Amino acid sequence: MKDKIIKKATDMFLKLGFKSVTMDDIACEMCISKKTIYKYFSNKEALVEEGTEVVHRKIHALMDTVIAKNYNAIEENFEMRKMFKEMFQSFDHSPAYQLKKHYPEIYEKMIANEMEDCNTMFSQNIRKGILQGLYRPDTDVDAATQFYYTLIFSINENTVLESEAFILEGKALEYHTRAIATPKGIEELEKQLLNLTT
After folding, report:
1. Segment 6-28, tens digit of pLDDT
2. Which residues carry the record's DNA-binding region feature (predicted)?
């Protein structure tokens, strides 16, 4: 029952907003009593925290699936972007923006975890791209990684609409890739950008 409550509550939080969904709404939607929810969660904040953990694990499982397909480094980044679009396209408001606004402590904890994971993933992608001749061999991996995730996190925490965040993330990806790509990498980037418009 606990897992069902987390799943339903998380779906509702992401679609309708962390602030607007109440414990009553969740109980009503699930046709259970509010008392049943409080049996597992002391308050709404505890439920939001567990829900963000579930989303975090789901995102990382999907990211691992993309990486396992062994795309080239640039294509891998575009496939990640596509995966995020499919996951979040039904939401009007950016979940990260909402979480930061209404549950800053949970947001800070989530961001600390995400930054560590993204740091690893972005670094691996850059090293892979260097080996494939798509990124310049003199690229400062740590600096490029930090620049890129600072851009991405800044977009997500400061952009209200998910659709706007998605467009800006695409621009950030292009900017990041052009900054470190070799001529071969630029060719691959242009191919990926062309795929987006066709």
Report:
1. 989 988 887 787 888 899 999 99
2. 22-41
